[in-house]
Amino acid sequence: MSKTIGVLTSGGDAPGMNACIRAIVLSAARFGYQVIGFEHGYNGLLNNEKIRLSNLHVQHIIQLGGTILKSARCEAFLKPDGVKNAVANLNSNEIDALIVIGGDGSLRGLQKLSEIWSGQVIGIPGTIDNDLNGSDNTIGYQTAIDTALDSIDKIRDTADAFERIFLVEVMGRHAGFIALASAVASGAEQALFPETIEDPHAELESIVQHVECLRKIHGKTSIIMVITEHLWPGGVSDLAETLTHQIGIECRPCILGHIQRGGAPVAYDRILATKLGAYAVECIADQETAIMVGEHNNQPSRIKLVDAFGIQKSLDPYLVKIQQDLFDVVHSMQ
Ligand SMILES: Nc1ncnc2c1ncn2[C@@H]1O[C@H](COP(=O)(O)OP(=O)(O)OP(=O)(O)O)[C@@H](O)[C@H]1O
Ligand SMILES: O=P(O)(O)OC[C@H]1O[C@](O)(CO)[C@@H](O)[C@@H]1O
């Protein structure tokens, strides 16, 4: 049976989204399905901004960061009327199935849509934050780690030359995946992420102790602390000022920011995105709905949408343990 699939990218763009769109379009063609791309996230559904996607549109995009469909956040879709208008538009375009590539918010929105729309809905985890349950990695996460790592390595060069202390803020929203991975991979002296810190101010004393311990052991040396955004009220600039005041050594803040979202996807993200795009179309052929496709232990997997965003994904406990026990000097000396 012929079907028309709608696809959109929503929330923060993530390297690999284009590779995923390509796989959806090419797989759909194999099944004889048509694909309509809606632009600017859920805004495209509400404003009927659409483009019929052919194989030509997705030629040579596998290596590109960003998303050819553009992405956005959409206030109007947060309201019940927004979701209703989206349903009306999906029906008037005779869409049978909708694929949304995005983060937890985007998939929450998709769940809302599935509750009042009779078409099939499939979510694909596309966010650098890696904060969706049901997939070992989200599309874009591995590229973001490499991008952060490249910057942190450069910060180390100048930090070493001046024997300075740097506080590096990475993205992740409220999840510490990027902070933990980039700290371990860069040999950072400390990683601070929300999963292990309830009260950041209570942590200040141990951060100060940490710096003092390091200086005692190594003398004047460079120190890098990687910190998840939103963790410290006032951000890393405020933390750097507070620390400078407390320990009497100038600390420098560095916010990596949106460079973490850009750039060509690494091979891992291209392959993951390709697998998940193809698998999403297979799931549509299987009459699946209200699921997120993912990858677990290298195998494609399916999980209910509500469990993808409703169950918190844990950091790798072993990585947390070794970062804290072996590499965060303050913890290992307590
Ligand atoms: N509870 C919700 N109900 C309906 N729509 C939602 C809901 N949460 C989010 N959305 C829609 O999804 C869009 C994207 O969500 P959000 O800004 O949280 O990004 P995300 O998908 O989590 O991606 P990322 O965190 O990687 O940027 C929102 O702008 C909104 O249109
Ligand atoms: O580009 P914006 O809208 O400021 O969003 C930034 C957020 O998006 C993400 O890059 C992806 O979710 C987060 O890590 C970050 O908090």
Automatic annotation (TrEMBL):
Record bears the keyword Nucleotide-binding: yes
Molecular function in Gene Ontology: 6-phosphofructokinase activity
Compartments where located: Cytoplasm
Cofactor(s) it depends on: Mg(2+)
Major subcellular location class: cytoplasm
Any matching Pfam family: PFK
Swiss-Prot/TrEMBL catalytic activity: beta-D-fructose 6-phosphate + ATP = beta-D-fructose 1,6-bisphosphate + ADP + H(+)
InterPro entries: ATP_PFK (IPR022953), ATP_PFK_prok-type (IPR012003), Phosphofructokinase_CS (IPR015912), Phosphofructokinase_dom (IPR000023), PKF_sf (IPR035966)
Listed EC numbers: 2.7.1.11
Lineage, uppermost ranks: Bacteria, Pseudomonadati, Pseudomonadota, Gammaproteobacteria, Alteromonadales
Top-rank EC class of the record's enzyme: transferase
Assigned keywords, A-Z: Allosteric enzyme, ATP-binding, Cytoplasm, Glycolysis, Kinase, Magnesium, Metal-binding, Nucleotide-binding, Transferase
Domain of life per record: Bacteria
Family statement drawn from the similarity comment of this UniProt entry: Belongs to the phosphofructokinase type A (PFKA) family.
Domain Phosphofructokinase: 5-284
Protein name listed in UniProt: 6-phosphofructokinase
Pathway: Carbohydrate degradation; glycolysis; D-glyceraldehyde 3-phosphate and glycerone phosphate from D-glucose: step 3/4
Record's keyword annotation contains Kinase: yes
NCBIfam families hit by this protein: PRK03202.1
